[in-house]
C-alpha cells in the first residue's frame, strides 16, 4: 500500500514538473454567419504584422492555446476580408462610441499564461484575469455613457436644422458626455500606471487630457506602461508642448501666405500686439462652424492692438484660398499645404483643430486651446 502511494505521488510530481504554463483563450462568437471563419490574435499597435495565434470558429466557439513569456497587450479580431472596415465604420456611425470602445466583433485584451474568456459580438467582452476584468469594467462604464447619450446621436444627424437654442443645448449634452468619459479614463489610468491596460487607455485619451496631466502620468508611469506602442509618441508630444507652454516665448516659423510670399510669425508676434495663432482647415466642420464668431471677434478688437494669424492645415490650395474669401477672413493666412504635417502644427504640438495660441505683445504665450467665446472674454478684460 505504501509503495502504491509513493508511486502515485511520484507520477503526480513528474507530471507537475513536466507541465508548461500557458494561456488558453476560450471564445464565443455571437454571429452564426462567422462559423468556419478564422479569428486572429495580434500584438496591439503593430502594423503589418503576422498574427500571434489563430483559430477557426466552429459552432459559435473557438479555442487558442499557447505560451506567453511576458504579458502582452493584444487585439483579437477577424480579417478585413471577413469584416471590412466599412462595416465597422457603419456600425460606429449608428451609435455613440468613443476611445476604448471595441470595434465590431473585436476585443482588446492583456494576454498572459492564464485562462481567458472572450465573447465577440457587437459589444464584445473579455474576462478571466484581474487586469482584463478591470478593463472590462471600464468598457462597461463607457457603454453606459453611450446608452445615456444615445438621443444625442439621433439629434446630431439633424444638427444643421436645429435652432440656436437647441444647438447650444445639444452641444452642452455632448460636452458633458465627453467629460464623463475622459474623467472615467483618467481615473483608470491613475490606478493602473504599472499596467499595459492603463497605457492602452492613456494612449486613447491623452489628446483629451491637459498637457500637465499627460506629463504627470508619464512621470509616474513605469517601464511596463511605457512599453505599449504609441506611448513613445505621446512622450515626444509632451516634450514638444513643454517648449511652447504658457509662459514660454513663441516658437518662430516661416511659411507662405495666401499671396505666395514667405513670411515669419515673428513678422507679427512680439511687435507690441496681441497675436492669436488660429490653426484651422477648410475641411474641418468645427473650424468653419466657429468662423463667423472669429470674424466678429476680429472686427471687435482689430483696432485695439490685436491681430490673428491663421495657419491652415489644408492640402488643397484652391480649397484653402476659397475658404478665406467665403468666410471673410481678413487677417493674415499661411499654409505649407502639408495637412497634419504642417510645420507650425508640429512645432506647437497641434493634434486637433480648431486650436488657438494667444501671444502677448512681448512674445510670451499666455493662453492655449481656447474657443472663441473664452478668447473674447479674455480679450474683453485685457484690451480696454
Provide an overview of this structure.
The chain has helices spanning 2-18, 85-93, 130-148, 150-156, 164-191, 196-205, 211-220, 223-226, 231-243, 285-301, 317-326, 343-347, 372-382, and strands spanning 23-29, 38-43, 53-56, 61-66, 72-78, 107-111, 115-120, 125-127, 254-256, 262-264, 274-280, 306-312, 333-334, 355-359, 365-368. By secondary structure, it is an alpha+beta fold. It has a five-stranded mixed β-sheet with strand order 13-12-11-14-15, with helices on one face. Strands 4-1-7-8 form a four-stranded mixed β-sheet.
Strands, helices and their partners?
Elements: H1 2-18, E1 23-29, E2 38-43, E3 53-56, E4 61-66, E5 72-78, H2 85-93, E6 107-111, E7 115-120, E8 125-127, H3 130-148, H4 150-156, H5 164-191, H6 196-205, H7 211-220, H8 223-226, H9 231-243, E9 254-256, E10 262-264, E11 274-280, H10 285-301, E12 306-312, H11 317-326, E13 333-334, H12 343-347, E14 355-359, E15 365-368, H13 372-382
